[in-house]
Specification:
Four copies of one chain form a homotetramer. The first copy, chain A, has about 270 residues and is an all-alpha fold. The first copy, chain A, is about 65% helix and about 0% strand. Chain A folds into two domains: about 120 residues, Up-down Bundle (Four Helix Bundle (Hemerythrin (Met), subunit A)), CATH 1.20.120; about 90 residues, Helix Hairpins (Orthogonal Bundle). In chain A, α1 packs across α4 and α10 runs antiparallel to α12. The interface between A and D is large, with 66 and 60 residues.
Chain lengths: ~270, ~270, ~270, ~270
């Protein structure tokens, strides 16, 4: 048996999380990602950003260099580098490096904060941690299975908001903060979703009456997405539990996961993995 | 086989979405509807409405003429024109045309915004898109099946709001914004539905104590509509379980998954896979 | 067969809703109750209360006299008058009459609005309408079956609010509106239940961080009462559907409600009522 | 049969709730705990705290002495005193006594309110009341079984808030209250959880558009934790269905309701009623 090459070993460390070295790599990367996110946040707080500007800058450079090395390593190690570079995470990886290097040439380019914000997308990497995959798959499958229903529901909500927003614009008028239909719709979304900022609130009696209807509607309507997702999840919950094996004698298919004998005819069931 | 008449073909295009031409027609109409809704919105934003008044007016005329042609085509093509004209969508179609023509004769009639708002109702048309029908039927059936329960619940909520609104009016008084019982009820709905604008908020200790009770009540009560709709949906989800086989003798279709004999006529059911 | 006495007939009309006359009586009473509630509301709106004082007073007298006659009739007709008088509805009925008569002797006694508010409790009468009983029983049974669980949950919520409210009082201090622990608790309830008035809001960074935790907690915790009620309702939903009859031959108990033959052995099932 | 020693009897009274004396002890303790919590609250209300300072101080001393005696009794009575002292409730018990004694030596040490707040944790004691244990176990098991799913969900919510908070910081800017990324994230949590204080609210059109998306997202996302907990609870509700019979041969207790043979050892199960 050939000893695995360095490139193969590096591939294992960087792209997989099964080996101890791979796990350490993932955790170090995770910490660096969180640290870089915290740095971006602290920099935005003006009092901290000004007082510790030099320190933050140095830390930022350190993280950027480590991420640069990681990016180069990923390209060198993978078999199809171009596929990685053009993948979602490849683009994110690159975009999380660029802002710092660009800022080296163009000082004070504040709009690059936007680009730097993309570094946050690296956070999604940790979703790869294997132990959660089974569970998040469960969530994703439930949401995916009910996507059309949720789509219909959201569509109905938006139509409701457009109609009620227009009505409130007509009823309340510009004097009470409903200066345009889009603002009326914005207010209606704020109300229907039970957020309720209070920056715009109805002032007339009729407006308050309509607002009450919208609120009760929003209070009742929230049951719909909940019902959709819950019934989908209950469905999925039920399936894995039984139905995994059929009795070879009577074809009964409702066996518990750990059943050894058929509960219907008493015959032994096939071995399960 | 006779070639279908022009009228028959037009009927297929306008009223059905199964043929390619019918789909194109539906999509073009959908885009026009969305565009006309956006136009109404933009017009209401005073800065845009004034600057681009002429352009908006021209676009509005264009859409109105297209909708007029569609309206006439629908009347000509359908077998019972009067039935269409007096139908819900027939009235909506007409109402979405009238405001523009009326505005031609009576300039500056601002209250016609109300009529123009009806054009938004045309948006409901897209609900006809066939692929969503199965799913929205599912939602509608679940909501319809639980209509009495939801009615009882909403009725209880309104009674609660009337009682607590009156109590708060007595406790807080006019000095703290609770100027009348209807306003107290409005505040109670805002609180119970967890919207919470904050335009009216209790100021006295007793008022805040009662408000806390209302909030916790509202927080707990939201479980009720959710429970109703969810259990109804789970129920419907399960029903397909009983619909997989039809009795070869009496055609009854509601059999349990493990049924061997028809529960209606006693005949043996076909083997299931 | 003896002709029923007038008293017996009146009893049927007043206390039951099965006969046409009883239904009419209930509906007339319902309308009067709603009307009297609306009158109380309108009176509280100062602009209306002053302008139409005389009219409102006359209508109020009219309703009070009708309710007085109803009260007397109920006492005369019922077999055990004292039991009615001391019952919940008997007390409500009396309390809804008294304020007007008292106001006749003591003019301008504003605090009687409180007593008049009790008239609202008459609204609960309509819950007696027979057709809703089956459904509201369903709700009540589900809520009653989960009362201990909901009690434990509400208890946990209140403890959480006391602890977090005290912490916020310590963190934010009196300068930021958290003038006492009760107010901190009030703020915490407002936040945890996702009402969020905004009359008191955290100002310090630490306070906002804790507030964020409370909000996410409240957002997640709402799943608990919903889960309790939903699983209870789903449970109840399931029971009536099957299990109502057992096959006299094979004792199988999972039959659909309308099953005539056993789906397991093909034997005929017993007649159901 | 030996008469139980005083120490044994005291142990029964203090640590158990099965005997009448034990129940009385628990209830008295419960009342004292609630009273001490109310005292801490009242003291914090400046108007009451100043007017009744002497009375509150005396009551506080009374409760502290009773709790001290209880603490000493608990140590003397229990077999392994050190285990109790270092246990969660042992530390809480001690911490609820210390502040008052410390305040005796160091007058006016306001920060001890923090320590005194720990006395609130004594409230958790009542969770020991035996009758609720079965029910709260149910809740705990459901929450514990779905801890990974809820963890993944909360993680996704936090990532969403970081990303949208940063975007809103860029879009709205410091002029509209979004003075830093952490504040943007705070605002995003307030919005996504549908709390909506309104202390920070978007002012620009683009900001309001993004806010609308966040609100609808938050309105829809709330279905996920609800779905998780509900399906878990429904699952647990259902398990008793499989627990009604035990195999007479292997004692396995997880049989489906209609099982005839044990799915574990193939033996025939007992007839069920």
């Amino acid at each position: 048996m050939k000893k695995p090459s360095l490139r193969h070993r590096l591939h294992e460390i960087i792209y997989e999380a099964d080996t101890p070295a791979g796990k350490v790599f993932d955790i170090v990367l995770l910490i660096l990602i969180v640290l870089s996110v915290v740095l971006v946040m602290l920099e935005s707080v003006s009092s901290i950003g000004l007082a510790y500007a030099a320190l933050l800058n140095q830390l930022e450079w350190g993280i950027t260099i480590v991420f640069s090395l990681e990016y180069i390593a990923r390209i060198l190690v993978v078999k199809k580098p171009w596929k990685y570079i053009t993948s979602f995470f490849g683009i994110i990886d690159l975009l999380s490096l660029l802002p710092k290097y660009i800022s080296f040439f163009f000082m004070g380019s504040g709009s690059l904060v936007a680009l730097r914000a993309l570094r946050l997308l690296r956070v999604f990497r940790i979703l790869k941690l294997s132990r959660y995959i089974g569970e998040s798959n469960f969530l994703m499958t439930a949401l995916w299975a009910s996507r059309v229903k949720i789509g219909v529901f959201l569509f109905a909500v938006i139509i409701l908001c457009i109609i009620f927003g227009t009505i409130m614009y007509l009823v309340e008028g510009e004097a009470n903060g409903f200066t345009s239909i889009p603002r009326g719709i914005y207010w209606c979304i704020v109300t229907l979703t039970t957020v309720g900022y209070g920056d715009i609130a109805p002032m007339t009696s009729l407006g308050r009456f309509i607002a009450s209807i919208i609120m009760i509607l929003g209070y009742g309507i929230i049951a719909v997405p909940t019902g959709i997702v819950t019934s989908e999840m209950t469905q999925q919950h039920k399936n894995p539990d039984t139905n995994t094996q059929a009795c070879p004698s009577c074809m009964n298919e409702t066996h518990l996961d750990d059943a050894v004998y058929c509960h219907n005819c008493g015959n032994q069931l096939n071995e399960t993995t």
